[in-house]
Write a structure and sequence with these properties.
540 residues, alpha+beta, Nucleotidyltransferase, domain 5, 3-stranded antiparallel sheet, 51% helix, extended, transcription regulation, zinc, transcription, zinc-finger
Length: 540
């Protein structure tokens, strides 16, 4: 047999040729690109597939922008499908869970009314808004949401809710502030009524000067509103700095129709009001050339009057204050004092309280409670020798001191109950300084009395006689309302008195109200006998 025939029958050569043919076929297949397959799952109608920097395949929700891994070999589309069924922003999501019934009690707490029946379902955004509202209304710290007690409470009541951090809560509170500020700003622009301002300044413990500005106005439904429109640090308590700060606030809010500005009796406020009078005159929105823009704070005047009255009995008040401080400084002393109260059979459940010397209302509370335990103080003095040694021979309150404090507490009770009754030469002098001279008073106060259905014109004459005496009061009343120069003002005030005597019927009295608005700008505040329309919806 020749070599050629032997080579054909060699099994080794046959195997090598077969391997070479397979390698050639494999290489030819690898060179052919596979046709891409279009996604067939319905979830891709709601998701967008993309590649990350690391080469991972992910899908992003078209509604809430949440991302999920969706590699076909490792993850699949199960996570995407589950999210599509629970996405809150999915426009075609169907709530299959049955709503829960909730009985909400009425806020007015009227007996016999059960409440309002509503439906409830879990809403994370609504819960978060309610949480922010609670932080603001109850003046809680932002860190409150990170407290263990609050987290335990939320796990018990609503485990599904994801509690935000204090940083998130602070941002949410600021967003609420911006939204409410925008609403109030647009409301004030839409309504043309005038706004009255009150402001005060103080210095914090960190030696930083602050100022707060509050706006008071009446809406179209005759409801009085009070809104804080600015709370900011200021450079100093000088009048020019206060005036510029108020001007900046008014420009930011777009407020120019200012009726009155109420401040305390500091001399710097007089400079600030003078500064604002010039600015309002330049804006052309003044009422009677801003002659009645400055309204002195009545609460501050009352405080000055009472503090001046306390100086007359200052020594007696000091003795009572030291006695109360001595007993409250130790639990043992307080226990022994209670035993003296029980032995004297004094029926009183109020405990001794120490006052703040700069606040007369706290001094009233201290005196009012302490004078009830006069006999207990005397018994305590006889049983506790250190009481007299600590306070000194003349430092223990005696019968005269208790009598003075009892009279002062009785007088202060009228101030405390908002009924002004002035007594004593020093207090009357302080009262006359601010309200004694009728020419120095802001006569807008009269206007409110004339329009009050409880007072009317007759009460004005009665108060003039009460304040200045029978003879002088009648003369001042005649001078302000009945002299020849103000004959037109009496007619206007009489019309106001009659007009406010009965409820307003809008349909019947609209014509009369329009006539009143036409006449009012032509009659100055001086002609009105010190009165002017303080109704914010009637613009002077």
């Amino acid at each position: 047999m020749d070599s050629s025939s032997s080579g054909q029958n060699d099994p080794t050569n046959t195997t090598d040729s077969t391997q070479s043919e397979q390698e050639t076929a494999t290489s030819s297949k690898s060179k052919v690109k596979r046709k891409p397959v279009m996604p067939r799952s319905t979830v891709w109608d709601h998701f967008t597939k993309f590649k990350t920097d690391n080469g991972d395949t992910k899908g992003k929700c078209n509604y809430c922008n949440k991302e999920f891994c969706c590699d076909p070999k490792r993850n699949g589309t199960t996570a995407l499908r589950n999210h599509m069924n629970t996405c809150k922003k999915h426009p075609h999501a169907i709530e299959t869970r049955q709503a829960l019934l909730d009985l909400q009690p009425n806020s007015n707490n009227v007996e016999g009314e059960v409440g309002t029946l509503t439906t409830w379902k879990y809403d994370e955004n609504a819960i978060r808004e309610a949480l922010v509202s609670m932080i603001i209304i109850d003046e809680l710290t932002f860190k409150f949401v990170e407290g263990e007690g609050f987290r335990k409470f939320m796990r018990a009541i609503c485990p599904k809710f994801k509690i935000p951090s204090r940083w998130t809560i602070s941002r949410d509170c600021y967003l609420v502030y911006v939204e409410e500020r925008s609403k109030l700003k647009s409301y004030l622009k839409r309504n043309c009524q005038r706004v009255s301002l009150t402001t005060d300044t103080w210095t914090s413990l960190q030696r930083i000067n602050y100022m707060c500005i509050t706006a008071h106005f009446i809406d179209n439904d005759w409801k009085l509103h009070k809104k804080i429109i600015n709370f900011c640090p200021i450079t100093s308590h000088k009048g020019d700095a206060i005036g510029r700060a108020i001007e900046t606030c008014l420009l930011e809010w777009g407020l120019d129709k200012i009726f009155t500005i109420t401040v305390d009796n500091a001399s710097s406020n007089d400079i600030a009001i003078s500064y604002l009078k010039k600015k309002l005159a330049n804006w052309g929105v003044t009422v009677s050339n801003s002659d009645y823009l400055h309204m002195r704070c009545m609460a501050h005047i009352v405080n000055l009057v009472v503090m001046d009255g306390l100086k007359d009995v200052g020594e007696s008040v000091l003795k009572v204050r030291n006695a109360v401080r001595y007993i409250r400084s130790s639990p043992a002393r307080l226990k022994k004092f209670k035993e003296c109260v029980e032995y004297e059979k004094i029926d009183g459940k109020s405990s001794l309280c120490l006052d703040v010397p700069t606040r007369w209302n706290s001094t009233y509370l201290m005196l009012n409670i302490a004078q009830k335990y006069e006999r207990a103080f005397e018994r305590y003095e006889s049983q506790e020798p250190m009481f007299r040694l600590e306070l000194g021979e003349n430092g223990v309150p005696d019968f005269h001191d208790w009598s003075e404090c009892r009279k002062m507490a009785e007088m202060l009770s009228h101030f405390y109950e908002l009924t002004l009754r002035i007594s004593g030469s020093r207090m009357k002098k302080k009262f006359d300084k601010y309200w004694g001279d009728i020419d120095k008073m802001n006569k807008l106060i009269y206007f409110a009395t004339v329009l009050d259905p409880r007072d009317k014109f007759e009460y004005m004459e009665f108060q003039f006689c009460q304040m200045h005496g029978e003879e002088k009061g009648e003369q001042l009343f005649q001078k302000e309302f009945f002299n020849s120069q103000n004959c037109g003002s009496f007619d206007m005030c009489t019309r106001l008195d009659t007009f406010s005597n009965c409820p307003i019927n809008v349909e019947e009295d609209l014509e009369e109200l329009e006539k009143f608005e036409e006449v009012l700008p032509s009659v100055g505040l001086t002609q009105l006998g010190g009165s002017s329309c303080s109704t914010p919806t009637l613009n002077s």
